[in-house]
C-alpha cells in the first residue's frame, strides 16, 4: 500500500477489521431494505428470500460488523495506550482470517440453505434459530476461540505495556463480553430457561458490556481528538462504569417480565432499567463538557483554533453522545415499566427503540473510529469534514431518525389496536397491521431506509477518498 | 499531585465501579438460582398431584388449557384441566390431542423436544414472537393454541378442512402457502407431518406457561370490533 503511515502492526490489523466491518455494515442495510420492502409489498422475494431470512441477515450482520469494529477499535488504541506493539499480533492476524471466513460461510448457509429438519444437525450446521445469535453451533465454537485469542492479545499487551485506566476497563469488559457468549450455547426444551439465558447474552452485551466499551472508546477519542485531560476523562470513565453496570446488570429484569419468570422481576426490572438512562446522560454531559473545557482552556491562551483534530470522527462521537441518550435512554425508558410493557412488549415499539439505540449507541462511535483510522493511516494532523462526510452524516442520521419515528407510530397503532382493543389474537394482529396509520408508517420507514442506505454509499465513498484529499492539514 | 477531595480521586471511583459491579453481579446470580428453581419444567406427577408449576411438564398436552382472569393475581393466568374456582388449576378436565389424552411422559416429552427443535430449525422467531420475543412480521405465538381463530368458532378448521384444532394447525404448518389469511403469507418451510405434530405440541405447552398475564385480554374482544 502506497503512503501507509502506520508503523504499528496492531493498527494495520485494526484497518482490516474496520474494512470488513464496513462491508458487513453495507450488507446489514441491504437486507434491512429487503425486509422493509416486504412489509410494504409482502410478495417481494416470497419463498425465495423470506422475511425471516432477510431479518436474520439484517440483525446478524449488525452484530457481526459491530463486533468486528469493536475488535478493530481495541487493536487500534492498544499501541497508543500501552505504548508497545500488541503482543501476539501474528495470531491476531490469523484469527482475523478465521473469523472472516467463518462469517462468510455462515452467511452463505443462511442465504441458500435457510432452514433444516427439526434435529440437532440443523442446530449444529444451519441455524440455531435464536434471534441475534442464530449462527450454528460450529460457528459458536469458532467465535469463542477467536474471542479468546483476542482477549488474550488484549490481556498480554495490557500486562506488558502501560496499563492505563482505559485499558483496565477494556480488559475487564472484554473478558465479560466474550464469556457471556457461552450462556447462549446450549439447547433446552424449556423455552423459559432458553430465553432466560438468551438474555444473558443479548442484554448483558448491549445494555452492559457494549455500553462500557463505548465509554472506554469515548474516553480514548476525547484524549486523542481534543487532547482532553486523561485524569479527568478516566475519572468520568470509572463513574460511568459504576452507573452502567450498577443499573444495566439488574436492569436485565425488564426482559424477565413475561417469559415465565417470577413476578419479583417486575420490581427489579422496573427500578434498575429506569436508572439505565442516567449514565447515558452522564456520558452526554461528559463529551460536551470536555469539548467546551478544552476549547475554553486553549482560547484563554489566545488561540482561537478549534481543538478538534478530526472533525468527521468528532461529529460521530458527539452524535453518539446524543444518540445513545435518545435511542437507548429515552426510547428505552418509553416502554420499560411493566405496566406499559405489558402492552408494548413485542410490537414495533421495540423495533423503533432497537433501530435508534443500535445506531445511536454503537454505529455512530464505530463510524467515528473508522475516521480515526483513516486519519492515522494517511498521516493527517488535522482532519476536516468534506462535503461527502457532511452529507453522509446528515442522511444516515436523518434516515435512522425517520425510521425510528415511523416505527414508533406503527408501534402506537399496534399497541392500541392489537393489544389494547383486540387482545393480541391472530385477527387482532392483522387488524393492526392493516390499519392506514400502520401501512403509512411502513411506507415512510422504507423511504427513510433508502435515505439511510444512500447515506451509507456516500459514507463508504468518503472513507475511501478523504485520506487523499488536500483539505486536511498534514 | 495531592488529591483535594475523595470525589475527584480516580482510585475512589475505580473501587466504586468494582464494588457496584460485584454487588450487582452477585445479586443477579443469587436471583438466577431462585428463578431457575421456579422455572424448571414440571413433570407428569406434578400434574396428577395438582402441583402448579410456572412451566408445566410435557404431559400438559393431555389436558384442557384455558387463559382466564385470576382475581387473586389481578391478571390472566393459564388454567390446566379446569378452574378450581379459587384461583388455581383443577388438573381434572382432559382434552384429546390428535385423538389421545393419555400420552406418557416419554411420548409427550419427545413431541415437545421435536417441536422446540423445529421452532429453532425453521427460524420461527425471525417472523413471529414467542412470549413477545422475536420479530414483528407475524402474530405472537405465546397463546396461539388458545387463539379463537383455530377453535370451533374460528375459521381455520373449515379453511383447512379439519375438525380439530390440532389437526388444523398441523395442516396449516405443512402447507401455509395454501391458506393465506393476509397479504403477508407464511412460506412453506418444508415442515413434515411429524414435525408439525411436534410444533403443535410445543405451542400447546407454550400456552400453559405462566407468563404473568402476557398477553393481556387475549381473545376477549374477538368479534366485538370492526363488525366481525
Q: How would you explain this protein's 3D organization?
A:
- The complex is a heterodimer of chains A (474) and B (228).
- Chain A is mostly helical.
- Chain A is 77% helix and 0% strand.
- Chain A has a domain of 163 residues.
- Chain A is built from 16 helices and no strands.
- In chain B, strand 1 and strand 2 form a beta hairpin.
- In chain B, helix 3 packs across helix 6 and helix 5 packs across helix 6.
- The C terminus of chain B is likely disordered.
- Classes of the chains: A mainly alpha (474), B mainly alpha (228).
- Chains A and B meet through helix 1, helix 2, helix 4, helix 7 and helix 8 of A and helix 1, helix 3, strand 3, strand 4 and helix 6 of B.
List the helices and strands and how they pair.
The complex is a heterodimer of chains A (474) and B (228).
Chain A: H1 9-40, H2 51-82, H3 89-112, H4 120-125, H5 137-160, H6 165-180, H7 191-226, H8 230-251, H9 264-275, H10 277-300, H11 311-334, H12 338-344, H13 348-377, H14 387-421, H15 426-434, H16 436-465
Helix pairs in contact in A: 1-2, 1-3, 1-13, 1-16, 2-3, 2-5, 2-13, 3-5, 5-6, 6-7, 7-8, 7-10, 7-11, 7-13, 8-9, 8-10, 10-11, 11-13, 11-14, 13-14, 14-15, 14-16
Chain B: H1 10-39, H2 44-48, E1 65-70, E2 75-80, H3 105-121, E3 129-130, E4 133-134, H4 156-160, H5 165-174, H6 193-207
Antiparallel strand pairs in B: 1-2, 3-4
Amino acid at each position: 500500500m502506497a503512503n501507509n503511515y502506520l508503523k504499528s502492526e496492531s493498527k494495520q490489523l485494526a484497518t482490516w477489521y474496520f474494512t470488513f466491518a464496513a462491508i458487513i455494515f453495507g450488507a446489514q442495510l441491504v437486507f434491512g431494505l429487503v425486509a422493509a420492502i416486504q412489509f410494504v409489498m409482502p410478495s417481494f422475494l416470497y419463498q425465495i428470500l423470506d422475511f425471516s431470512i432477510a431479518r436474520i441477515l439484517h440483525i446478524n450482520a449488525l452484530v457481526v460488523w459491530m463486533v468486528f469494529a469493536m475488535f478493530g477499535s481495541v487493536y487500534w488504541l492498544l499501541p497508543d495506550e500501552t505504548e508497545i506493539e500488541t503482543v501476539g499480533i501474528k495470531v491476531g492476524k490469523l484469527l482475523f482470517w478465521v473469523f472472516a471466513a467463518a462469517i462468510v460461510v455462515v452467511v452463505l448457509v443462511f442465504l441458500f440453505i435457510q432452514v433444516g429438519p427439526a434435529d440437532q444437525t440443523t442446530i449444529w450446521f444451519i441455524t440455531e434459530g435464536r434471534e441475534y445469535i442464530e449462527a450454528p453451533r460450529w460457528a459458536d465454537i469458532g467465535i469463542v476461540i477467536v474471542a479468546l485469542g483476542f482477549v488474550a492479545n488484549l490481556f498480554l499487551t495490557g500486562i506488558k505495556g502501560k496499563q492505563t485506566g482505559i485499558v483496565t476497563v477494556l480488559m475487564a469488559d472484554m473478558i465479560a463480553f466474550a464469556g457471556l457468549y457461552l450462556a447462549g450455547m446450549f439447547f433446552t426444551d424449556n423455552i423459559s430457561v432458553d430465553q432466560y439465558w438468551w438474555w444473558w447474552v443479548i442484554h448483558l452485551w448491549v445494555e452492559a458490556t457494549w455500553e462500557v466499551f463505548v465509554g472506554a472508546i469515548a474516553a480514548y477519542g476525547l484524549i486523542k481528538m481534543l487532547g482532553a485531560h486523561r485524569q479527568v476523562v478516566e475519572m468520568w470513565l470509572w463513574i460511568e462504569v459504576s452507573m452502567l453496570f450498577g443499573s444495566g446488570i439488574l436492569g436485565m429484569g425488564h426482559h424477565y417480565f413475561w417469559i415465565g419468570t417470577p413476578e419479583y422481576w417486575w420490581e427489579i426490572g422496573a427500578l434498575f432499567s429506569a436508572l439505565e438512562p442516567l449514565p447515558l446522560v452522564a456520558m452526554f454531559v461528559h463529551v460536551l463538557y470536555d469539548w467546551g473545557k478544552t476549547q475554553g482552556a486553549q482560547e484563554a491562551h489566545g488561540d482561537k483554533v478549534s481543538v478538534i483534530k478530526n472533525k468527521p470522527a468528532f461529529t460521530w462521537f458527539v452524535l453518539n453522545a446524543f444518540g445513545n441518550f435518545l435511542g437507548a435512554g429515552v426510547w428505552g425508558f418509553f416502554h420499560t415499566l411493566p405496566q406499559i410493557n405489558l402492552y408494548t412488549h413485542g410490537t414495533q415499539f421495540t423495533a423503533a427503540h432497537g433501530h435508534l439505540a443500535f445506531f445511536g449507541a454503537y454505529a455512530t462511535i464505530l463510524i467515528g473510529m473508522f475516521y480515526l483510522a483513516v486519519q492515522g493511516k494517511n498521516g493527517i494532523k488535522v482532519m476536516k469534514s468534506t462535503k461527502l462526510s457532511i452529507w453522509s452524516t446528515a442522511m444516515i442520521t436523518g434516515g435512522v431518525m425517520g425510521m425510528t419515528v415511523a416505527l414508533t407510530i406503527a408501534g402506537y397503532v399496534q399497541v392500541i389496536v392489537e393489544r389494547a382493543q383486540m387482545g393480541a389474537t391472530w385477527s387482532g394482529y392483522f387488524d393492526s397491521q392493516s390499519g392506514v396509520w400502520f401501512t403509512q408508517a411502513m411506507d415512510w420507514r422504507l423511504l427513510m431506509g433508502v435515505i439511510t442506505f444512500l447515506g451509507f454509499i456516500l459514507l463508504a465513498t468518503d472513507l475511501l477518498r478523504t485520506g487523499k484529499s488536500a483539505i486536511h492539514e498534514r | 499531585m495531592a488529591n483535594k477531595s475523595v470525589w475527584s480521586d480516580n482510585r475512589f471511583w475505580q473501587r466504586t465501579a468494582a464494588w457496584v459491579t460485584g454487588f450487582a453481579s452477585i445479586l443477579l446470580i443469587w436471583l438466577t438460582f431462585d428463578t431457575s428453581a421456579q422455572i424448571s419444567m414440571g413433570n407428569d406427577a406434578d400434574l396428577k398431584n395438582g402441583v402448579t408449576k410456572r412451566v408445566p411438564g410435557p404431559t400438559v398436552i393431555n389436558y384442557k388449557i384455558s387463559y382466564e382472569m385470576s382475581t387473586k393475581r389481578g391478571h390472566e393466568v393459564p388454567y390446566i384441566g379446569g378452574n378450581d374456582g379459587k384461583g388455581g388449576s383443577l388438573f381434572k378436565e382432559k382434552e384429546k390431542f390428535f385423538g389421545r389424552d393419555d400420552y406418557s411422559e416419554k411420548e409427550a416429552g419427545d413431541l415437545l423436544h421435536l417441536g422446540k427443535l423445529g421452532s429453532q430449525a425453521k427460524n420461527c422467531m425471525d417472523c413471529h414472537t414467542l412470549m413477545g420475543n422475536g420479530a414483528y412480521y407475524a402474530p405472537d405465538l405465546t397463546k396461539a393454541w388458545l387463539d379463537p381463530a383455530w377453535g370451533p368458532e374460528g375459521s381455520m378448521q373449515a379453511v383447512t378442512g379439519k375438525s380439530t384444532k390440532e389437526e388444523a394447525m398441523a395442516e396449516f404448518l405443512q402447507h401455509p402457502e395454501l391458506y393465506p389469511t393476509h397479504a403477508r403469507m407464511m412460506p412453506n418451510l418444508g415442515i413434515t407431518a411429524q414435525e408439525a405434530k411436534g410444533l403443535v405440541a410445543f405451542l400447546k405447552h407454550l400456552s400453559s406457561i405462566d407468563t404473568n398475564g402476557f398477553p393481556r385480554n387475549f381473545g376477549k374482544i374477538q368479534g366485538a370490533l370492526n363488525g366481525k
